[in-house]
Design a protein that fits this description.
By secondary structure, the protein is an all-alpha fold. 69% of the residues lie in helices and 0% in strands.
């Protein structure tokens, strides 16, 4: 395969049509031996391959979560201390410890109030919101499936066109090769006929010379 920046890529083989390796096992063995001696392919990606897409490049939290899932790390356990009401540990407790415990109790109370408000909102508006969300997800899934089917169909059509093109070109090459073999055979037959005629002419000349001497 030859590649140039100004010329299109040209393939010098027809994998859908060529079957020499199947016909000649010894040739296949030689090819495998030659490939084994070749250096390893370059690790760089072909310039026609698009660069990898980086997910969540602008969201460090989601990116960290994706890395955690890819590395098969367990999900961090929830911090339950923030939902507890611990009393001061020292006896007697200082004013600072009681103030900290009081702030924590107020925070817990506010958290419960916000949680009750959120549950009320979820009970009133959550079902419709989830229905809309599910509808959007189903529409997105259908679009993605359709895009996948279109891509698969396009891939099948490309492979079919490639196979048909290679079959057509392969038949033309086989016909030209057969014609070339026939022409070479005709030339060889003509050369052999010429040699035979030259030998016959030489024999006639010798007979003519012998008759002239008599």
């Amino acid at each position: 395969m030859a590649e140039s920046s100004t010329q299109p890529i040209i393939f010098d083989s027809l994998p859908y049509y060529d079957d020499d390796l199947q016909k000649f096992p010894l040739l296949k063995q030689k090819v495998e031996q030659e490939l084994a001696r070749q250096p390893k392919p370059p690790s760089t990606i072909h310039p026609h391959v698009p660069p990898p897409f980086e997910l969540f490049a602008k969201n460090p939290l989601l990116r960290a979560e994706l890395e955690r899932v890819e590395s098969h790390q367990p999900f961090p356990s929830l911090d339950t201390l923030r939902y507890q009401l611990p009393a001061p540990t020292s006896t007697p407790a200082t004013d600072e410890e009681w103030q900290a415990a009081l702030k924590n109790a107020r925070a817990q109370l506010e958290h419960q109030r916000i949680r009750q408000t959120n549950l009320t909102l979820l009970q009133n508006y959550g079902p419709n919101a989830w229905r809309i969300h599910n509808y959007l997800l189903e529409a997105t899934a259908k679009q993605t499936e359709k895009a996948l089917e279109d891509l698969k169909q396009l891939t099948v059509e490309v492979n079919r066109d490639r196979k048909n093109t290679q079959d057509r070109l392969g038949k033309q090459l086989t016909m030209l090769e057969t014609r070339w073999t026939e022409l070479i055979s005709s030339v060889l037959q003509i050369e052999m006929a010429n040699v035979a005629l030259d030998a016959e002419v030489e024999q006639l000349n010798k007979k003519e010379a012998e008759l002239a001497e008599l």
